[in-house]
Amino acid sequence: MASQLETIGGLERRLTLSVPSADITKKVQERFRSLARSVRMPGFRPGKVPLKMIAQSYGPQVQAEILGDAVSRAFTEAVDEHKLRVAGQPAIQPKEGGEGEAADFTATFEVYPEVVLSEPEKLAVERFACSVGETEVSKTIDVLRKQRTRWLEVQRAGQTGDRVTIDFVGKLDDVAFDGDTASDFAMVLGEGRMLADFETGVAGKAAGETGSFDVAFPEDYSAKELAGKTARFDVAVKKVDEPELPALDSEFAKQMGLADGNLEKFQ
């Protein structure tokens, strides 16, 4: 099956495909004979339906299927012939003015670009370096210790670094609002996870103490119904825990995977 390749521009290509009409006619007739062996029509025994009637009933459908298969096969063969790397599905259209002995089609599509790599020894590579000193090591060890913090209950007022467990109710104009009421809520003072006014109101209170204070929500607060408003919070402190970091010793080094507990190796 003949084919012609055109470069339309950039990565776009067009193939002109020619499918012999005789081949189509032959395959259509073969399909009709195949249908005649199984198709059923009123007034005819199975296998006795005339080919003319089968052609009248199934002609357009069979013609379209045979032609579609032939064009698809012609396109695949043309792609192999021209060694094309097709990107996406082609747009196939019948071509006007085709010869009587052949059905002509055009297939328009894009191809993958050809990428030519430079020789590796001529490539410039930017190498990034990261210096690790005593300061970075110390910071990382501090993080590892904080991840293994033990919390010990204390009988004193909460201060920065302590974990306090509280119950609280937030109100706007003396009406509680959704999302700002909780029980047994744990927070670490000084972490900044709560608004500054809230942390200030909780700090300095011991277990069993209560308090009420105002919290001003910023204009850009995520909950639009609270943005720019001031709410009143009632808080009851239930427990205060102080942090205890693990000692930086051989036992800690063993926990980090050094079987001999050598602290110098760990650092």
Describe the structure.
With 267 residues, this protein is α+β, with helices and mostly antiparallel strands. It is 29% helix and 32% strand. The chain is built from six helices and nine strands. The chain has helices at residues 21-36, 51-81, 134-146, 196-202, 250-255, 263-266, and strands at 3-9, 12-20, 86-94, 102-111, 150-153, 163-172, 175-188, 210-216, 230-244. Strands 5, 6, 7, 8 and 9 form a five-stranded antiparallel beta sheet that branches. A four-stranded antiparallel beta sheet has the order 1-2-4-3. Strand 1 (3-9) and strand 2 form a beta hairpin. The longest helix has 31 residues, at 51-81. The mean pLDDT is 88.
Outline of the structure:
With 267 residues, the protein is α+β, with helices and mostly antiparallel strands. A hairpin with a 7-residue loop joins strand 3 and strand 4.
